[in-house]
Amino acid sequence: MREKELRIALVCYGGVSLAVYMHGVTKEVLKLAEASRAFRDGLPQPAGSPGAYHALLQAISDHGATRLRVIPDILSGTSAGGMNAIFLAQALLTGRSLDPLTRLWLECADSDVLIAPEARPGHRFSKIWAQPLVEWTLRRPGNAVSRTVAPETREEVRGKLSRLMRSRWFAPPFSGSGFSRLIDDALLAMREQPPGPPLMPNRHPLDLLVTTTDFRGYRAPLHVNSPVGAVEAEHRLPISFRAYGGDAELAARAELVFAARATASFPGAFPPLQIAEIDALVEERWFEWPNRDHFLRRIMPHHVHAEDLDSVALIDGAVLVGAPFAEAIQALQNRPSTREVDRRFVYIDPNPEFRIGNARADSRPIGFFTAIFGAMSAIPREQPIRDDLERIAHHSADAMRIRGIVDALRPEVETTVDKLLGHTLFLDRPNAERLTKWRRRAQQAAAERAGFAFHSYAQAKFAGIVDGLANLIRRAIDVDPPAHDEIVAALSRFLDAQGLATLAAPGGGASDAAITFFRTHDIGFRTRRLRLLARRLAPGDVGGELDADLRETARDAIYRALALYTKLDLAETMGPEFGEAANRVLEDPEAVLVAIAERRDLKSTDPQVDALLAEGLGSLPREQRRKLLLTYLGYPFYDIATLTLLGAWGLDEFDPVKVDRISPEDAGSIRGGSAASTLRGIEFYNFGAFFSRAYRENDYLWGRLHGAERLIDITASTLGTEAAVPPDVLAAIKRDAFLAVLNEEREAGLCSRTVIERLEREVADKLG
C-alpha cells in the first residue's frame, strides 16, 4: 500500500463579516484532520462529517491503493481570517473543539455587542438632534441599506446602524478591551474542554503566521550604494508561532489574545491595540504571561531597542497584507518528510466577485472622494494575489523543466557510472560498505569531469550550505537574532581563512578542504539525491515496473533514510545548549560550526542511510534495482547540471506545489452561482453579518458545506486521474458530509432549525 501525505498550507483572507463563513470552512479542515487521524489509527468510522471524510480516505485506499494522511501544518491569516487561523492551530495541536469560537462568532460578532459601553447611546433619544440625519441616511432613495440588504432584514440592520451612528463620534465605536475579553473567553472555553488525541504527527512542525500593521512603524535600513545609512519606515509586523506535534499548547494565552486582537483590529471600528491593553487584561483576570518580554523582543525587536514599546499601536493586518501567501511560502522551508508528500496551498476567498468588481469596465468618471478612498484603502486591501501565485507557478514550471533535464541526462549518466564502476557484478548486490565506496568514487569522478563547470557548481553549492547554516543558527536564537546577512558574512570570513576561498583542486575536482566541508555540512545534496531516487518510484517511471508491495518497500526505505537527514536541519534537533553557541556566532563562528558538525554527525548518519537503501533496494528485481542504484550513484552528475537552476526554492517536499481555492463559486453541488447566491454577509459591503444573527448563522452553515465539498475534491485529487475515486462514489460521500454537517448543527442548537431543514431539502433535491 502506497503511503502518502496531503499537507495543507491554509491561507485565510481578511473578509470583514465574512470571517464567519471562513470559520465554517476552517471547522471542516479540523474535521478532516480528525478523520485522517482516526483512519490512520485504524479506529471505527467516526460520527458527523468526520465519518464522511473517513469514508473518502477508505475510498482512496480502495481505488488508488494509497494510504493517505491529511496534515494541515501551515496556517496563515490576516484580519478576522487571522483569528480563525489562531483558533484552528490551537485545535489541531491539542485535539480540542472549535465550538467556543463558533459561539463567539454567532453570539458576539454583532454591532450591538461590540459597541463600547461608554460609546453606546444610553436611550432611544440619545443624540436626538441627529435622528433626522440618521433616518434620512438610512431611508433616502438609493441608500446603501436598500441597495445591498435583503428586504426581510432591513429594519434589523437599520436599527443597529442607527445605534451605531448615534454612538460616540470621532472615536472607534467598538471596544478594544471588550474585544480582547471576548477572544480570551473563547480561548478559555476551548482550554476547559478535555483535550482529544493530537492531530499533528509527533514532533511535526505546525506553523502559524498572522499579519498586523504597525501604525507608526519603525526605521528599517535600506541596502543601497549611497547614501550609507539610508532608512525607510516599515509598517508590516508579522507575528509567528511554531509548535510541534505533542506540545501541550501553541503559545501562552496572552500571546494568542494579543495576536488575534492585533490582526483583527479593523481601522476606525476598533482602537489600535497597545501592549498596555493586554497587560491590563492579564491583571484583571489574574493569569500569568510567562516570557512576556521574550515575546515582545521576538516580534518587535526594533521597538525594544528604541525603548518605545509603550507607544506601539497595531491595526488590522489586512491594511497592508490582504492575502498572506508570502508568509505561508516562507514557512515551507526545512520541513521533515518520512513519506511522499502532496503539498497544497489552499486559500479561502469568500467573495471573489467583490475583489474584481472594480476591475470591470465602468464609463462613469471617478469622483474626488472615490479616488482618495480607493487609493488609500480599497485598492491596497484588495491587491490581487497574482504575484504570489505566479511565483508558485514559476517554481512548479522550473521543477518540471529540471525533471526534463534529468531525464535527458539519464542515459549518458548511467553509461558513465557503469563504466566508472567497471561493470562490477557487485552492483547487483549492494551493501552499506559497497554503497559508501561507490558513492565517493562517483562523486569525485563527477567533479573531475565537470571541468570549468565545477567551479560555478562548487561555489553555488558552498553558498547554499552557508546560507542553510545561517538559517539554522538564526532559528536557534530566540531573541533578537543578528541579520541573516551578518551571520553569512561571519561564517564566510572564517571559512575563507580555513582554505575554502577556492574550492577546486589544481588538477580538477574538489580540494581536500572542500571535500571535508561538504562531507561535514552538505545536507542539501544528500536530501536532493534521495528525493530524486523517490521520484523514480513514480508509476510512470521505475515504480510502474514494480509490484506494489515491492515498490512500497523501496519507497519506505528511501523516506526513512530521508528522515534521518531532514531532522538534522531542525534547530530543535541541535539540543538546548546549541542556542548558547548560536548566540555567539558573530564573535566565534568556529565554535558554532563545530557544534553543528558534532550534533549532526553526518559521518555516522551516511552509513545508516546506505544500509537502509541496501536493504530496501535489495529485494527488487535485478533490472529495477540496477536502475535505481545508477540514479543514486550518478546523482553528482545530475546535481552539477541542475543545482544552479534550482534557485532559492531548491528541491523540497513541495515539489511541485499545487494551489486550490475554497469559495462559494467553486462549490456548486447544492446551490451554484457566486457568493450572492448563498452568503448574506456580503451585503452592506461585506459588513452585513455584523448586523444580523440570521446572516451569521446562514454564512457559517454555508462555510461548513462549501468547506466539506471543496476539501473532498482536494483530498480526492491527490490520486490524479490514473486511479481516481469514481464520480458517483464522490457524490455519495459529499451528500453524506452535507447531511452530517446539518445534523450536527441541529443537535448543537445554535442555528435556525428552519434554515437547516431548508438546506436538507436542497441536498435531497440535488443529490438524492
Automatic annotation (TrEMBL):
GO molecular function: hydrolase activity
Alphabetized UniProt keyword annotations: Hydrolase, Lipid degradation, Lipid metabolism
Ranges spanned by the short sequence motif GXSXG, renumbered to the chain: 77-81
Transmembrane intervals: none
Record-linked PROSITE patterns: PNPLA (PS51635)
Residue interval(s) of motif DGA/G: 316-318
Catalytic residues in the record: 79 (nucleophile), 316 (proton acceptor)
Domain of life: Bacteria
Keyword Hydrolase: yes
Pfam family, one: DUF3376
GO biological process: lipid catabolic process
Keyword Hydrolase belongs to the record: yes
Ranges in a coiled coil: none
SUPFAM superfamilies assigned to the protein according to its UniProt record, in alphabetical order: FabD/lysophospholipase-like
Occurrences of domain PNPLA (ranges): 10-329
InterPro entries, per database record: Acyl_Trfase/lysoPLipase, DUF3376, Patatin-related_protein, PNPLA_dom
Name by which UniProt lists this protein: Patatin-like protein
Species this protein is from: Croceicoccus ponticola
